[in-house]
Write a sequence for this structure.
């Protein structure tokens, strides 16, 4: 058996043929940190192996970082048409809704209230995805349950818009000149454009 070695930098020797090379060997076994040099054997152990340099830098691809303009927007501000009235009589109208996850849509299905009355699904779901409402310390389904019907309808629409399309803009057409444009739905009040 003939072994071929190549010098790899400052006095270190890299075994290119590897242990067990001999008759029938096709190529060297990879050496850790030495790259993947390929030596072609002739079946009799008389292969020519290229010199492998351990000092050659191995370039790893840089991690892909999305430009700021292409990052996913996950939170959307809104303003309720009427507002939630808390126990002290304060009205809370401005809030933030985040994108829903699959978990947000699955967990409410296990809720007994939803199993007894499927219409309750939107109340529980909205309680999970609304992250802020006015200066309330916490938003939960009990708060959504006590909202005015117009606010609940607004939030259901807003939820569909944000989660179906990923934004709160709607493509519309001017009724007078038929020119297309976009309308921002987030943060607007019902009936306003």
């Amino acid at each position: 058996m003939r072994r071929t070695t190549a010098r790899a930098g400052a006095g270190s020797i890299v075994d290119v043929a590897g242990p067990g090379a001999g008759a029938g060997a096709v190529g060297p076994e990879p050496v850790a940190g030495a790259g993947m040099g390929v030596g072609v054997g002739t079946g009799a152990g008389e292969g020519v192996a290229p010199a492998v340099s351990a000092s050659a830098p191995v370039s790893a691809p840089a991690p892909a970082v999305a430009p700021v303009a292409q990052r996913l927007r996950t939170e959307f501000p809104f303003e309720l048409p009427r507002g939630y009235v808390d126990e002290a009589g304060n009205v809370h109208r401005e809030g933030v809704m985040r994108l829903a996850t699959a978990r947000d849509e699955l967990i409410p299905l296990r809720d007994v209230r939803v199993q007894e009355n499927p219409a309750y699904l939107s109340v529980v779901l909205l309680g999970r995805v609304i992250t802020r409402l006015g200066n309330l310390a916490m938003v939960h389904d009990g708060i959504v349950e006590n909202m005015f019907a117009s606010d609940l309808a607004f939030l259901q629409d807003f939820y569909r818009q944000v989660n179906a399309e990923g934004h709160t803009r709607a493509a519309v057409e001017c009724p007078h000149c038929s020119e297309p444009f976009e309308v921002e739905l987030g943060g607007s009040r019902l009936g306003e454009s």
Observations:
- The first helix runs from residue 102 to 106.
